[in-house]
Amino acid sequence: MDTQFEGQVALITGGTSGIGRATAEALRARGAEVHVCDFKARAEAELALQAQGISISQCDVRDVTALKLWIDSVAQSSGRIDILVNNAGIGLVKQCPDVTESEWDAVIDTNLKAAFFACGAAIPHMRQSGGGSIINIASNAGLLPRAHDPVYSISKLALVGLTKSLALSQSPDRIRVNAICPGPVKGTEIIEAELALHPDYAAAVKRFIAASPMAQAYGRMITIEEVAQTVCYLASPAAQFVTGTSIAIDGGKSLGVPPVA
Ligand code: NAD
Questions:
Q1: Which of 93, 136, 188 to mutate to test the pocket of ligand 1 (most atoms within 8 A of CB)?
Q2: Is the CB of 142 under 6 A from ligand 1?
Q3: What is the pTM for the complete model shown?
Q4: How many Å lie between the centroid of ligand 1 and the Cα of residue 137?
């Protein structure tokens, strides 16, 4: 095992699927003590993560009391918190007039409110450890809002704003706050659910690829491992002066209109 993060304690929300799971495995493989929470039970993934020494807790991040309890209990048992990855997220492909109040609440509470209160719970522990790194998994939609999912776009734009605001206010305590803004990532439940809305799966994948110049060039979508590696970079001392940024992993999708395929 790599020892890059040995002695460091990392927490990841929504850690038993997709990007969260890949991130948990990547940080663990580099020596971190890793704790994940999720609200869904996934027996196979949980067994695989536990076999790597990753601890799993049941927690719905929309319940900020339960979220704080989980973070405080890890800090108490492990003695410190160094890395927090606010990863839990849900999508909503629906237009403004059709969105119900409970759908709005579910998306905003999961993608935005939970990240804010997880930061609030983790920051005092990071302060005690002499600093820390918070990484918010935002989205391409956090850089450029999209027509098809306004509430999701709003939640991720606000998460990018949260990242900048907390980066400013927490810097005296050497706590860095950054965001990652991926384009469509394969191997995630969120993107599979979106693809399932299209009658022609292969054509929908092609459309995702066509929207990003680098995805076009390589003929593939972004992988969960590529996002996890960027989390590892942002959590590492190599990124000691990197704070408040939003790193796009989208093959240039957010730059503008891609070349015609
Ligand atoms: P995913 O659906 O595979 O993983 C999301 C995880 O969050 C799941 O494990 C899910 O159970 C968990 N989760 C959702 N609501 C929760 C809650 N209330 N409490 C606890 N856990 C909860 O999809 P993913 O792509 O790995 O999603 C991770 C993050 O990446 C999300 O924030 C998502 O918005 C973001 N993202 C994904 C893509 C993509 O293309 N997949 C692109 C940009 C951003």
A1: 188
A2: no
A3: 0.98
A4: 9
Residues of the chain with pLDDT > 70, as a percent, come to 99
Q: pLDDT digit string (tens) for 65-111?
A: 999 999 999 999 999 999 999 999 999 999 999 999 999 999 999 99
Burial of 149 (0-12, 13-18, 19+ CB in 10 A): buried
| Ligand 1 atom at minimum distance from 109 CA | 18
Q: What's the pLDDT score for residue 1? A: 66
Contact 122, 11 (CB under 8 A): yes
Alpha-carbon span 232 to 213, nearest angstrom = 25
pLDDT at 257: 84
Q: Which residue among 35, 137, 162 has the greatest number of ligand 1 atoms within 8 angstroms of its CB, and so is best to mutate?
A: 137
Q: Where exactly are the structural domains of the chain? A: 9-185+223-249
> Ligand 1 in contact with 88 (CB < 6 A)?
yes
> Would you state the pLDDT for residue 258?
80
**Residues 27, 231: Cα–Cα separation, whole Å:** 9
Q: How many CA atoms lie within 13 A of 179 on its CB side?
A: 28
Q: What is the mean pLDDT of the chain?
A: 97
Q: Which superfamily does 9-185+223-249 belong to?
A: NAD(P)-binding Rossmann-like Domain (3.40.50.720)
Active site residue 233: no
